[in-house]
Amino acid sequence: MANALVVDDSRAVRMILSRNLREVGYDVREAGNGREALAVVAAEKASLRLVLTDWNMPEMNGLELLKCLRSDPELASLVVIMITTETEMEHMTEALDAGANEYVMKPFDKEILFQKLGLAGLRV
After folding, report:
1. Strand, coil or helix: what is 86?
2. Is the dihedral of CA 116, 119, 120, 124 positive or negative?
3. pLDDT digit string, tens, across residues 78-99
4. CATH, domain range 4-119
5. pTM over the 0.85 mark
6. Separation of first and last alpha carbons in the chain
7. Exposed/middle/buried for 115, CB within 10 Å: 0-12, 13-18, 19+?
């Protein structure tokens, strides 16, 4: 059962993030957009602890995904971190107001990712 989900329309970004999470012990699933992510969340709801999501994706973007996740009381403790090229303060504020636990701007390195996981209360 997965305890982390990486959501990004870039296969390369998904691979990098998944590898970084596996290095510190996470069992990772991947999705290419928000709709795919919701299907994974439905199947893995009991074990899922972390979602890393991009903002800009086809079909359902990361902000829409975040709002769907936060509308489910069963997912209240799920940590959601937005990882995106959107660097404007208004985007960061919008994501945090919608319930993101942390916000990471691309490009980033794994030390920044691990720091944000720690700030969100997760083990690294």
Report:
1. coil
2. positive
3. 999 999 898 889 999 999 999 9
4. 3.40.50.2300
5. yes
6. 19
7. middle
